[in-house]
User: What shape does this take?
Amino acid sequence: MLVRKTIGISLVLLLMVSLVLFAAGSKDTQETLKSYTFKLGFNTTAESVRGEMAKEFKRILESESNGRLKVEIFPAEALGSEQEQIEGVLVGSQDFSFPGGGAMANVNRVFGAISLPFLTTGYDDAHSKMDGAIGDYWKKTAESHGYKLLGFGDLGFAQITNAKKPVNSVADMRGLKMRSPNEPVLIGSMQNLGASVVTLPFTELYLALQQGVADGQFNPLDAIYQTKFHEVQDYLAIVNIFCYNINFITSQKLWNELDAEAKTIVQKAADSAIQISRQYYINADAKYLDMLRPYFKEITQPDTSEFRKAVAPVYENFAKNVPADFMELLK
Assistant: This one.
């Protein structure tokens, strides 16, 4: 009887010790998980689609981590220009950014492929490419340059506006002075359509259109409305000529420092933010087209087959500067 009692007491003591050790171990594990306050910067306003992405990223990140992971948001180039922020992510002066494909093309030309004219036929096709083999190629390329690419958001399809005449054909593009960012694919596309090109920063575009320095420009409908280009433009052509995307980047250095739980939460938050941008543009195009209708003298929807033929040389020039295996993926 005494032996049984002794064994019983021993088992109870062993169980108590085990529980204490388990609790201590759990506490130690929690204490060793590092807390982070990240910096997320981008070049557009807090009210833009990037701003909406940032808010969603913050919401998911902080709620899923119970506050262990936090993020401070810096919109409107508060941390520098788009290009400076790409470099800032690499050197660690900020942790995340949302650059477009054109800006990322300065890291490697393959990122500029998203803006090849008429590469995609719509949002579903664009998402298929970004989430498929092309996106995988971009992610591997990003890693080779020290970046971790968490995924791709939407920035919409570019439409053409001008102050001179309605655009129904390639012939109507001739003689127009079109503003373009300083990106070879975009410049080459306008030139092959017969327009001359004026390269200007986006911040100078409204004044350039107002003063006639440029006759026209190309941007997604939400950007046209939000920046009030309709005040200084008379004609809108719906052509979906360029697809713009968002590259959600961090650095490989930071990614490798994160514990497994933090990586899972960061990726989940990034995925949710990306879906915010995609849903935004699915709804935005119809919404902003209706909002813009009263302001334009004429809105046209040209047959783009002629436009596609005219810009074919842009693909040939692009192929000279990127690996052949990447060009195969674009076919």
Notes: The chain is about 50% helix and 15% strand. The chain has two domains: 35-155+244-287, 159-242+296-323.
